[in-house]
Hints:
Layout: H1 2-6, H2 16-25, H3 33-43, H4 49-73, H5 80-103, H6 112-133, H7 139-163, H8 172-193, H9 196-225, H10 232-241, H11 246-289
Amino acid sequence: MRSAIRSIPAEAGQDRAARALALAVRGLPGERADWGAAMSAELAGVRGARARWSFSLGCARTAAGMRVRAAVLARDRGATGLRASVMAAIAASVALALYGPLRYPGLRTGASGLAFAAFLAIMLAYGVAALSLSRGNAPAATIARRCGVAGGLAVGGGWLLIFLPVSKAFFFVPLAVALVAPIVAAALAGHIGRDAGVGRAAALWSGLVGGLLVFVAYVTVTYTGDGRPYDAQTVRDFHASGARDLVTYAVSDDLGGALTMLVIIPVVALALGSLTSAPASATRHAQRRR
C-alpha cells in the first residue's frame, strides 16, 4: 500500500493521507467523480495527522462500496462475452472445489471448512473485480481488456508449464513468461491508452484470467490423476504428516497450492504492472508541470 501511495505524483505540501485518498477515489464511476473531488477538497481543511488519516480511510471505505455497487448494478456492462467467460470460470472453480470432498471424503476433516470459506471469499473478490473491469465500452476499457486477456493467457500458460511433471531444467523459461506477460500487457495498454490506469487495469485482467486458468486446469488434472505423480518428496512428506491416505494427502496438497496461486497470480501481476506504469505516469506529470 505504501509503495502504491508513493507512486502517485503529489503536489507540493500534499501528505500521505491526501495521497491515499487520491488513490482511493481515482477512477470512480463517472457519476461519483464529483464526490471524490469534493472529499479531496474537504480533506484540505482537516487538521492533525490522526484526524486526516481517519477521514481519508473513511472515504476509502465509502469509495470501495461505490465501486462494488457500480460493478454489480451498472447497466452499461460493456464486454458481455468476456464477463460471461470469467463468470463461467468462477462457477467451474466453485464446482471443482465442491467436488473434491465428495470424491475424497478425507478432505472433509481438519481445517477444510476454513479453507473453503477463504476460497469463496477469493472467488467473490474475483467476481467483483471482473464486473468492475468489464464495465463500459470506452476505448480505454477495451484496450485494457484486450491486452489483459492476452497477458492472462500467457500468464496462465507459463504457470501451467511450470507445474507439469516434466524435467525442471528449463523451468525459468515459463517462469519468465508468467512474470513478464503482465508487464508487457500493462506497458502496451498504458502506451496505447496514454494512461497508467489503463496499464494497471490490463495487469489486473492478466492476473484474474491467469489465476482462473491455472486453478481450473491444475485442479482438473489433479482429480484426473488422483494427485499423481507421487515423487519421493511427496511420499516422505506423507509419512512425516501421519496422514492415513496418500491419495487424499497428495490431492489436498495440490488443492492448497492451487488456492495459493489464486491469490499470488493477480497480486504479482498487479504489482508488476503498477511498477511498469508508475514511471511513465510520473514522467507525464512532470512534463505537465513544466
